């Protein structure tokens, strides 16, 4: 589904991502792990067009998408969440989801100004889809509340809802469990699995190893922008290099 080929991103003298290659297969839940600053978020920024690579290519469904603009890549079916959520806190849950769905309709500005019947139809459809998404992410009963009143875990759910509003085939999640308590992780993991079961391929960055081990079918480990291990979660967790660079001697899978 996705192939990253020899990808590098330099910031001045810093090699944030260094000759990285990997593939994401359809149906995967692939985790990318590694120490702080190892280049994980930069990889997502390169795939989704937020950064232009210094070198290398990104192929999506066989098409070279390297250097395309983020909205063009999004329209091709790749959605993402950010490490720091980008929801409108003063807007309601539903309002956030309506905005996300609106990005997919195309009546455009003139339709909105003249309130064409097509535009009214689109608006109605956006509302229906926003409600359906609120239900899917388990926030239907809270859809009329401002997002600022949600817990951290609920805000993470909403960010995922905003991403799936574009009906992606590939979903990139940057630390979906960040700031979430251990107790709240179960339902969030269940949501990610449910999205995957709907046929969406998932690639996630995560520090919480319990989540990585139980959710992913494959893991990639980065250190200083380079891939130091790849494979089944249980095998990666046993790798000497991974223990040394990231997990520490005390880690037991
Ligand atoms: N826009 C930028 N300009 C300059 N340096 C950057 C930029 N973005 C990232 N970096 C640097 O690139 C390196 C990789 O950063 P990145 O955010 O990809 O790491 P990460 O693996 O996601 O870390 P974390 O686990 O802390 O989120 C870091 O040293 C970071 O400071
Ligand atoms: Mg990061």
What attributes characterize this protein structure?
10 strands; 253 residues; alpha/beta; Rossmann fold; single chain; globular; six-stranded mixed sheet; binds adenosine-5'-triphosphate; four-stranded antiparallel sheet; binds magnesium ion
Structure description:
This protein is an alpha/beta fold and 253 residues long. The protein has a domain at 2-85 and 167-247: P-loop containing nucleotide triphosphate hydrolases (Rossmann fold), CATH 3.40.50. It is built from ten helices and ten strands. It has a six-stranded mixed β-sheet with strand order 6-7-8-3-9-10, with helices on both faces. Strands 2-1-4-5 form a four-stranded antiparallel β-sheet, covered by helices on one side. Strand 7 (170-174), helix 7 and strand 8 form a beta-alpha-beta unit. The protein starts with a strand and ends in a 6-residue tail after the last helix. Magnesium ion is lined by residues 40-41, 83. Residues 40-41, 83 line the site of magnesium ion.
| CA distance, first residue to last residue | 29 Å
Main β sheet profile: 6 strands, mixed
Count of individual beta strands:
10
Radius of gyration: 19 Å
Shape: globular
**Which fold does the CATH topology of the domain at 2-85 and 167-247 refer to?**
Rossmann fold
Mean pLDDT: 92
Bound molecules: adenosine-5'-triphosphate, magnesium ion
CATH homologous superfamily assignment of the domain at 2-85 and 167-247: P-loop containing nucleotide triphosphate hydrolases
Secondary structure class reads: alpha/beta
Tally of helical segments: 10
Q: State the share of residues found in helices, binned by percent.
A: 25-40%
Major sheet: arrangement of strands: 6-7-8-3-9-10
Strand content: 15-25%
User: Architecture of the domain at 2-85 and 167-247, according to CATH?
Assistant: 3-Layer(aba) Sandwich
What is the helix/strand order? EEEHEEHEHHHHEHEHEEHH
